[in-house]
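retry 2 of 3: previous attempt timed out while embedding NAP. Reduced batch size to 1 and resubmitted. Inputs unchanged:
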Amino acid sequence: MTETTPNHTQTVNGWAALEANGKITPFVFKRRKTGVDDVTIKIIYCGMCHTDLHHVRNDWGITLYPLVPGHEITGVVTEVGSNVSGFKVGDRVGVGCIAASCLDCDYCRDSQENYCDKVQFTYSGIFWDGSITYGGYSEMLVADKRYVVHIPDSLPMDAAAPLLCAGITVFSPMKQHNMLQAGKRLGVVGLGGLGHVAVKFGKAFGLHVTVISTSPHKEKEAKQRLGADNFLVSTDLKQMQAGARSLDYIIDTVAAKHSLGPILELLKVSGTMVLVGAPDKPVDLPSFPLIFGKRVVAGSLIGGMTETQEMMNLCGEHNITCDIEVVKPDYINEALDRLGRNDVKYRFVIDIAAGKSML
Ligand code: NAP
Ligand code: ZN
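retry 2 succeeded.
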C-alpha cells in the first residue's frame, strides 16, 4: 500500500502500472478525505484513452509511477464538501483530464484551465496537497468541484465516458476554429477514439466529413455506421491526389509519427489543420504545402471546464455517444495491447464495478 499525505485517509482499490511498460495489476492506495470543495465519486465506468497507453509505456518520459491511468471517468456522487453547491449525492457526473489549476491566471479566469501553466492532470500529476494524482482505473475518486461536470440524463454512463477526453479534445478545436458550420468540409485523420467522435460531431452539425485513414478495412463502417461521406486511404497516392484542395478543415488524431505534407495538400487555400494526436516523436512538416496553400497548422489540448459541460449538454441534446467495447478490469492489459495494435472500435471502456470480485 502506498502512503501519500496525512489527509489521505480513504483506502481505494484500483489498477496500476508500477514501472514503465509494466503490466497493470490490482493496486490499493489512499485518496484524500473529502475536502470542503471536493466531490467524492463512486466510479462506474472509465474509458481507455491512447494517452493512458503513452503513459503506461512512458512514451513521453514524464510518467510518475505507480501509475493509475484513466481520465474518462463517469460515476455517481457519494459525498460533497461543505462549499459545494453545484453537486449533490446521487448526481451522475464525469471527470476528465484536469485535477487542479491555479484558479487565478487569465486562462483559469476564462475557463481555459487546460492552458493554465500550473495545470495538474487526473493521473501522473501533483495535486495542491503535494500528493501524486491517481486516475479512474479505480473504484473511487475525490475531485475538486471545479473539474467535475454533470452527465445529462439522456446519455448512458458507459458510452458517455470517452466524451470526457476524446469528446472534448475534438470539440474544443472545432469550436475554436469555427468548424461547426453546416456544409463545410471536414477531414478527420485517424479513425480511433478521438477520430470517431470527431466524425460524429461533424455529422451532427451538418458538415461533409472525409475520413483519412491507414486502415482500408475501416471504410465500410466509417460510412455506414458513422455516416462519413468520404474515405481516403492515406497510403493510396491516387486517392490522396484526387482529394487535393477539397477540405476546409482537418483534425489530425494520429498517435504515431507521420508526415503532415500529403494531408495538408487535402486542404483548400487558407485551410486549417489542427493537431491533437500526440506522437512521441516530431511529425514531418514540409514547408511547401504550407506556403503554396497559405495553410495553417494549429494544436489543441483537451478543453476547459465550461466548454466540457457545454459539449456534454450538446451530446445530450443531439444524442451523441461513443461506440465502445465494455471490458472488465481483468482485461485491461489485453485491451491496452489491442489499443496499441489499432484493434478497437472505437474505445474500450472499463466496467469498474465488475472488478470488485477480482481484487
Ligand atoms: P486511438 O484510438 O489509438 O486512435 C489513433 C488512430 O490513429 C488509430 O485508430 C489509427 O487510425 C491512427 N494511426 C495511424 N497509424 C498509427 C500508428 N502507427 N499507431 C497508432 N495509431 C495510428 O487513439 P486516441 O485515443 O484517439 O488518441 C490519439 C492521439 O491523441 C494519442 O496520441 C493521444 O495521446 C492523443 N490525445 C491528445 C489529446 C489532446 O488534448 N491533444 C487528448 C487525448 C488524446 P487509422 O486506422 O484510421 O489510420
Ligand atoms: Zn485522453
